[in-house]
């Protein structure tokens, strides 16, 4: 199979879909891998590195989209890239379609087979292709929030760890999953006063055992959430409903109870955000202020630490990329129901229920797709 990866063009996105090491693995399976010139610059991988790994360097993304059967990316295709997709092509990348009707419409129109990293499952309903980026984003959320709390960035001038004789900053983490756990770990390590909110008693018990007295846990109902938000210097939104738009848990009315210069970091912004006042921002212009509260809503946080993020991502995506390339997408999905859960769009139809429900498309099951398109 001819596989292509291109330079990411989203604002300040430095990750790349395939590392030279991944290219070497694919080439060793007999596949042809095309890489856009400069695609790996953000992780320190040169064109020469890709050539040495068995890749073929092409000068433009258009060449790669035109000739490759499988496109492996990191972020959702931007409008110029979506215009290059075609019906006999497989796209394997993060998509986050539920809050993005324009992208969904373009993918449906193109006829492409689009498999989303974020909905590929694992044992126990885990999301193994989302997990490493959630780990990165959770850890970065505290780092970003601590910076935004500094006075020169519009924050209230609070040091999360405090100093002897001065209380530490208060951090509220909404959601105790992978993002929330990693955010809490970093915040606790900095010496902050940390509270984690979640609705799952088993999650709260697990967090309580792990953190012991170093972090508090509270059940996430309206009253507890409102109280924690009002007291917090930093609120981290770490809510995830797989494949669906994030619930807007922190309302604008809650902002009015917060201290001026407090900070919200919305890690759920890829799925539409879990704060009512959120909208996506970029690394070049990461924050905005509503009612005196600083919002950090960068939609590709892990892109800022591109080398770490790319290698962590390739560790989990490469086995699936190899299966798609070795077997073809139909056989790969038929053989692996976890990978099949990643199929979001095929041949002009939406195949992921949460996306279809959110954007009001009829849904076609993956089983029906595979049955209908199985070779005779």
Q: What is the helix fraction of residues, given as a range? A: 25-40%
**What name goes with the CATH superfamily of the largest domain?**
NAD(P)-binding Rossmann-like Domain
How many separate structural domains? 2
User: What is the CATH C level class of the largest domain, in words?
Assistant: Alpha Beta
General shape? globular
Cα Rg: 21 Å
Please report the distance between the alpha carbons of the first and last residues: 21 Å
Model regions low in confidence, pLDDT < 50 over at least 5 residues:
none
Explained architecture:
By secondary structure, the protein is an alpha/beta fold. It folds into two domains: 2-119 and 306-373, Rossmann fold (3-Layer(aba) Sandwich), CATH 3.40.50.720; 131-299, NAD(P)-binding Rossmann-like Domain (Rossmann fold), CATH 3.40.50.720. It is 37% helix and 16% strand. It is built from 15 helices and 15 strands. It has helices at 20-28, 47-52, 61-67, 79-82, 101-110, 131-148, 178-189, 201-211, 222-231, 252-255, 306-327, 329-335, 337-340, 353-359, 366-373; strands at 2-5, 32-36, 56-58, 70-72, 90-93, 113-116, 170-174, 193-198, 216-219, 234-237, 263-266, 287-290, 293-296, 343-346, 349-350. The strands form two sheets. An eight-stranded mixed sheet has the order 3-2-1-4-5-6-14-15, with helices on both faces. Strands 9-8-7-10-11-13-12 form a seven-stranded mixed sheet, sandwiched between helices. Strand 4, helix 4 (79-82) and strand 5 form a beta-alpha-beta unit. Helix 6 packs across helix 7 (178-189). The two termini are 21 Å apart. The mean pLDDT is 96.
